[in-house]
Design brief:
The protein is an alpha+beta fold. The protein contains 12 helices and 4 strands. The chain has helices at about 10-15, 25-40, 45-55, 60-75, 80-90, 95-110, 110-125, 130-155, 160-175, 245-260, 265-270, 285-295, and strands at about 300-315, 315-325, 330-345, 345-355. Strands 1-2-3-4 form a 4-stranded antiparallel sheet. The relative contact order is 0.14.
């Protein structure tokens, strides 16, 4: 199986947290860039010290936490790395990369059922995530090789099982790259693939200069049980702007303020030209409805609580928050999700959803 990489938004991981950081964006970039360079040089202890100092001020920062998980994996502190990626999947279940990297770690421990579950979760959250699909195929093949090996232990004359086992071994051996790969690279802006290991040997990983990639399970050795696979870690997509969370939240604040001030023109200007109105409405009908609803109340107050920004692409972000709406005629609170796109120097709303 050929090695490949899939992309992950850099700020997606740099910013899964979503809240605007108090520290200057440039300083944040420098801190994590320094840590990534230390990883590239193999100085994992120093890199971990930098990342932990970064996380001390920003404990929820997804990019920093992702980078910490990669460093721990490089240090062979697998259980700690698993804890880090597990926490990321719990805090940001919509992101496929932490699920994929969990699968990498589980597969390296021979825990193929857990690896399979993690990859299936990655695919559920991101059906087009090719890395997870290939890794899942590798895990299934590895599990099959174990089953065929077991069948041969029980029946040495089982030629069909022997043939299938040989085919799987040939598949992996022909796919294994001759050169050394890298493990899920630093923060989400590079790639890292793990070095495939020979049967019975633990794969050695090399920290990349960029974000995470994904890997393939190594060829099975003489006995299925002896093989330790190395799946490719997730490779990041085009990095989203590193410090755009502030710009995104400023756009959301202006949108809420225009709504509260009954400023219909400014309010509607926050929606992208290709905005997708709910329930299949036309843009014209939707705008007419919004004009009527915003103009009618004498007083409107829209409050945003606990916003979280997740970058889903270079020019895309998802903002989730608790919305409190109050007017002289109606009040409601619920969860609001805004899918936003950057057009020029503006962040505009492409899609919105409210759950009361």
């Amino acid at each position: 199986m050929a090695l490949f990489s899939v992309r992950v938004p850099a700020l997606l991981v740099a910013l899964m947290i979503g809240l605007v950081s108090m520290a200057p964006a440039l300083a944040q970039r420098d801190e994590l860039r320094d840590a990534s360079e230390l990883i590239r040089l193999g100085q994992y202890d120093r890199a971990l010290t930098r990342v932990e100092a970064y996380l001390k001020e920003r404990p929820k920062d997804a990019r920093g936490r992702f980078l910490k998980g990669l460093i721990l994996a490089e240090q062979k502190k697998i259980d700690e790395a698993i804890d880090v990626f597990t926490a990321l999947t719990q805090d940001y279940p919509e992101l496929p990369e932490p699920h994929n990297n969990l699968a990498v770690l589980y597969a390296n421990q021979g825990q193929y059922e857990k690896a399979r579950s993690a990859l299936e979760m990655a695919i559920r959250t991101h059906p087009s995530y090719a890395t997870a699909h290939e890794n899942l195929g590798d895990v299934y093949a590895k599990m099959a090789s174990q089953a065929y090996g077991k069948a041969l232990q029980l029946d040495r004359e089982n030629r069909a099982a022997q043939t299938k086992l040989n085919l799987i071994r040939e598949l992996f051996s022909s796919a294994a790259p001759a050169s050394k790969g890298t493990v899920a690279a630093a923060a989400p802006t590079g790639t890292m693939a793990e070095k495939p290991s020979a049967a019975g040997a633990k794969p050695a990983v090399e920290a990349p200069s960029g974000p995470p990639a994904a890997g393939a399970v190594p060829a099975p050795g003489p006995s299925a049980a002896a093989v330790k696979p190395a799946i490719k870690p997730a490779s990041p997509a085009k990095a989203a702007p590193r410090d755009d969370s502030k710009q995104v939240m400023q756009a959301v604040d202006r949108w809420a303020r225009a709504w509260s001030e009954n400023d219909i023109a400014t309010y509607l200007a926050h929606y992208a030209p290709d905005f997708e109105p709910p329930q299949g409405m036309s843009r014209t009908a939707w705008e007419a409805q919004r004009r009527a609803r915003i103009a009618k109340p004498r007083e409107i107050k829209v409050m945003i609580e606990a916003p979280k920004v997740v970058f889903t692409g270079e020019d895309r972000a998802k903002v989730t928050f608790r919305q409190h709406y109050r007017s002289n005629t109606f009040k409601a609170s619920g969860t609001k999700t805004l899918d936003m796109v950057r057009q020029g120097d503006k962040w505009l709303i492409k899609r919105e959803q409210f759950k009361g």
